[in-house]
Q: What sequence folds into this?
C-alpha cells in the first residue's frame, strides 16, 4: 500500500480540538470586552506549536467552527467568534449524550447515598429503568429537554 492509498492521520483530537477549545475559551471569557483574539493569543492557550495552530485554525474556519479576520495575504490574524457547534464540542454547551451520561451518574450516586433502604431501592429502580431505555433513546430524550421541547398531554 502506498502513502497515497492510506488515510491521513487523525488530527482532530491532537491538533484541531485543542485549538478549538483555546479559541472558544478566549472568546467566551471575554476579558477584552469581546474584542477579536489574535492568533498569537491562541498559540499559548492551546499549548501547541504555532505551525499546528495555524493549520488547525485554517481547518476550523473552513469547517465553520470559528470566525476569523485575515490579512491581505489571506493569513488568519484574529478570531472573532465561534459557532454554536464549536461551543458544544468545546464543552461549554451540553450535548444530549453528555447529559444522558450525567443523568445516569446522578441516579447511581443518589441510589448509593440514599439515607434509607426504601429510598435506595427507588433510586436503583429509576437507574435501572433509565439504563433499560438505552443510550440512544436517552440521548433523544435529553436532546428534547436541552432544546426545551416538552410533549403535551394528549
A:
Amino acid at each position: 500500500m502506498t502513502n497515497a492509498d492510506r488515510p491521513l492521520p487523525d488530527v482532530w483530537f491532537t491538533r484541531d480540538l485543542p485549538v478549538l477549545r483555546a479559541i472558544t475559551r478566549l472568546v467566551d471569557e471575554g476579558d477584552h470586552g469581546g474584542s477579536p483574539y489574535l492568533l498569537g493569543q491562541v498559540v499559548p492557550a492551546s499549548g501547541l506549536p504555532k505551525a499546528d495552530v495555524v493549520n488547525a485554525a485554517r481547518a476550523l474556519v473552513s469547517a465553520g467552527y470559528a470566525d476569523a479576520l485575515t490579512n491581505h495575504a489571506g493569513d488568519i490574524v484574529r478570531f472573532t467568534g465561534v459557532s454554536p457547534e464549536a461551543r458544544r464540542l468545546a464543552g461549554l454547551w451540553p450535548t444530549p449524550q453528555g447529559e444522558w451520561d450525567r443523568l445516569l451518574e446522578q441516579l447511581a450516586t443518589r441510589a448509593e447515598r440514599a439515607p434509607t433502604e426504601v429510598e435506595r431501592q427507588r433510586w436503583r429502580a429509576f437507574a435501572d429503568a433509565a439504563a433499560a431505555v438505552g443510550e440512544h433513546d436517552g440521548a433523544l430524550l435529553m436532546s428534547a429537554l436541552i432544546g426545551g421541547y416538552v410533549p403535551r398531554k394528549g
In short: The CA atoms of residues 26 and 53 lie 14 Å apart. The helical segments are 12-29, 39-46, 50-62, 84-90, 96-113, 117-133, 135-146. The chain has a mean pLDDT of 88.
